[in-house]
Write a structure and sequence with these properties.
41% of the residues lie in helices and 16% in strands. It is an alpha/beta fold. It has a single domain, classed as Flavodoxin domain (Rossmann fold). A five-stranded parallel β-sheet has the order 2-1-3-4-5, sandwiched between helices.
């Protein structure tokens, strides 16, 4: 069974980001996929110290947070969906801390993410989606993760004055649905022919 890990980078309870990542995960047929959600709101992820300790230790040397717990799930998954709220045109800082550290560990320890399939989901009230979306695409790309397309970017408009209303963005949900359909097709094709 193929594993898909969804990561919600929002620290808010019942956030729009978590709703959208859960929605995406719910679209994978449970006869072929095992899905799991990790929400950063319940975890402590400290920023990368840039110490290069992972170069010799072959793992992140910071041990007083939840990074290793999430990193192991990322390494074990066949697919990754990473969602972020967008406040000021960028990825949420706690999520970026996770991705910076995961990228560094992957860089020095091997190809844990190579050939995985995944993509981003961004949510904001007005604007800034595109730059945060691009940040996440850059992370997927440099970590050798295959990103399937959709009929538009996987982003949603929600959250006016803190509202939890992502379910109302029918267009955003439609693009996420198309993305998940393509992601599941690519994952199944790679399972049959891993050397594609």
């Amino acid at each position: 069974m193929l594993k898909v890990l969804g990561i919600s980078g929002s620290l808010r309870e019942n956030s729009n980001t978590e709703y959208l990542v859960r929605y995406a995960l719910s679209l994978f047929p449970d006869t072929e996929f095992k899905t799991e959600l990790v929400s950063l709101k319940e975890l402590v992820i400290k920023p990368c110290q840039g110490c290069y300790g992972c170069l010799t230790a072959r793992k992140c040397v910071q041990e007083d947070d939840d990074f290793e717990f999430v990193y192991q799930k990322m390494a074990e998954a066949d697919g990754l969906i990473i969602g972020t709220p967008v406040y000021f045109s960028s990825v949420h800082p706690q999520l970026m801390a996770l991705l910076d550290r995961a990228g560094f560990v992957r860089l020095w320890t091997g190809e844990q993410f190579s050939g995985k399939v995944g993509g981003p989901i961004t949510v904001a009230r007005r604007a800034g989606h595109n730059t945060a979306f691009a940040q996440l695409l850059l992370w997927f790309f440099i970590n050798d993760i295959i990103v399937p397309g959709s009929s538009y970017w996987t982003m949603a408009v929600a959250g006016s004055r803190g509202a939890r209303d992502a379910a109302k963005d029918e267009e955003g949900l439609r693009h996420i649905t198309k993305f998940v359909k393509n992601m599941s097709r690519v994952m199944k094709a790679l399972q049959v022919a891993p050397d594609l």
